[in-house]
Amino acid sequence: xxxxxxxxxxxxxxxxxxxxxxxxxxxxxxxxxxxxxxxxxxxxxxx
Length: 47
Known about the structure:
The chain is 94% helix and 0% strand. By secondary structure, it is mainly α. The mean pLDDT is 88.
């Protein structure tokens, strides 16, 4: 592998990693929001 190819490869890997990390965070946030909604609904039904 030439140095140019290596740096391009490295950049694409870093982009993919960053993308995956962002997606994982978004999914975690969505799941915690859903859990929160379920808890609030359960409390309202309990009254």
